[in-house]
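User: Quick one: structure for sequence A, then sequence B.

Assistant: Sequence A:
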Amino acid sequence: MFLLLMTKKRRLRIASYNINGINSRLAVLTRWLAEFQPDVACLQELKCTDEVFPREAIEAAGYSAIWHGQRSWNGVATLSRVGEPVETRRALPSDPKLEQSRYLEAAVCGILVGNMYAPNGNPRPGPKFDYKLEWMDRLHEHAAGLLGSGVPAVLIGDFNVIPSDRDVYKPERWLKDALFAPEARERYEQLVAQGWTDAIRHLHPDERIYTFWHYWRNSFQRDAGIRIDHALLSPSLAKKLKSAGVDRTPRGWEKTSDHAPIWVEVEA
């Protein structure tokens, strides 16, 4: 019996949620944590400084947390109920705009979790789009190093890229948008081609799956969305992938984010 207990494996649920303002949507977040119970939750768009991050509420929900905030914009946090997340990096190497909090990396349960909020890039063309592409190039370089290390890793969060026509309702309406730009899509494709597995698309190759719906024109009710939140798994972690998907439920709540959480389950 002792031997069986020692060798029994469990599933680890790692989720990502662009909360679109953590303090204004704290009730939504804590409700989701209680109902969905992710083991690790990566949050983006905190829109708060480090000093006003709601640490007490997060701890009351049963989670430890690390975070990197920014006034009014951006911001990322990693929550864990399976041990303290150990921070390893809080920006991409050589990021030209370190004042923007967009990347937070931590070790949790033997997995390196890269929590990211990539630049939107609009309007295109322009300096914001140039920065988006430059940031993605930095991500490409860093991701290659992670793969070279051989450590089990996941890059998860809001990539602000629509990878293909399957990932958007009416692609023709997004042709001028930075999220659907050929340059951004090509960089995402090149990133995956390094050896990363797009977990949701890998398990659901032909389905139309969305993670974001605008607030206007009943976009969510009509399912007129896009898929811009992704989870990329390193080869060693991809072998342990058991399931992945989108938790659409919170998107239907009142005063909620315009994103829905994504999640993967891996054998730990």
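Sequence B:
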Amino acid sequence: MEPDELDALAARAAAGDRPALEEVLAEVQPRVRRICGRMLLFPEDAEEAAQDALLLVATRIHQFDGRSRFTTWLHAVASNSARSTYRSLKRRAAERVTDQLPVHADPRTTSVIAGSRLDLLEALEVVGTDHPELVEPLVLRDVQELAYDEIARLLDVPLGTVKSRIHSARQAVRPLLKVTD
């Protein structure tokens, strides 16, 4: 489906057209899975995040106001869902250890403690504690590969602010990332 067609379909869905919403969800499902898969290495984790993101799209489509492309809005929803899933998995893994249950190397735990993208997610959590305004622009640019102008429209901030936030976020994240040789 062409971007303009998807934007028009999403606008109808945002206005309450239920068949349009169902069509939007079917159309974007593969894209949402790819977005979540870029951030979460373990397929089941990415699938959990994708399902959460699709649920958010279905329940919050009315928030899509057409200031940006629907796919730009979708990237933000899916990226935030992947980060939320990561936090949830991390919390569940910590609860297992806290409850002193035997910790076996199962996929739920392993996905939280292994993998190159997970150190980025952890760094984003650290940076987001003190500077939450830096995280989303960085994720949209460096993980989801959106253009600066798309990010500015999506976040409703000037282009210079987007570039500045991304630069600051990169500086904050860089020392937190694990370097492997």
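The chain has one domain: 3-176. Residues 3-176 form one domain.

User: Thanks, that's what I needed.
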